[in-house]
Amino acid sequence: MSILEAKDLAVSYGGVFIFDHLNLEIPEGKITVFIGSNGCGKSTLLRSLARLLKPVQGEIQLDGSNISNMPSKTLAKQLSLLPQGPVTPEGLTVLQLVKQGRYPYQSWLQQWSKEDEQAVHAAIHATGMEAFTERSVDSLSGGQRQRAWIAMTLAQATDIILLDEPTTYLDLTHQIDVLDLLHELNERDGRTIVMVLHDINLACRYADHIVAIQDGTVYTQGRPSDVIHPETIESVFRLNCQVISDPIYGTPMIVPQGKLRKKQ
């Protein structure tokens, strides 16, 4: 069952089409990962799903309704986006950042409430950031900073979370840490998570559904075992590889073939 759909979508920059007649369904309650080479349109598609880019034609539907017709705060209560490399104002504490996630629920008639307070503390607890609430975000490590931004996104209390390369600039330990957290949110709360990842092996390990994008089109999509084959990697990434089974999780794992000679 899909919760978010692109229907006959066309998006352009400066008259150049990035997508044209694109159709895509995001399965509800699953982790979906977009993969593809640099510049293929992954981030553009994610931003379009979040209504940050206006389509030239077609539409994005959320639960069957065109998101273009939704009030901004209504959409922000259902769908949240964590962009790549978000910039934090200097001196902003973790607690102040996480409170920003409650903006869609504020108005002249409804100021800060007990429900807002509970949502903020629940988000901080879920991301393990209790010890950092009074620290400035710009003083944190990369992994901690990413957790703080994810906490802000969780405080927004949406059923759909979009993340643009959430593991960028993180070392392997913190990449796994962040992806484990997102997997836990999906498993525990049933949240629909859509993200862009560069690491195909990690995408296979964490995704229920993979969408391989090639030059502004959906080349193929489905379960990792149905999508990740040598032919797919060669077509989408122009890379020869072997695909073996991950020795720990049994998911597809690619072994790229480069020009390096085999060492004796």
UniProtKB/TrEMBL annotation:
The record's annotation in SUPFAM superfamilies points to: P-loop containing nucleoside triphosphate hydrolases
The record's annotation in InterPro entries points to: AAA+_ATPase, ABC_transporter-like_ATP-bd, ABC_transporter-like_CS, P-loop_NTPase, Siderophore_ABC-ATPase
The protein in question is named ABC transporter
Pfam families named among the record's database cross-references: ABC_tran
Q: Which domain of life is it from?
A: Bacteria
Using the record's annotation, list all stretches that form the ABC transporter domain: 4-240
The annotated topology with respect to the bilayer is: Peripheral membrane protein
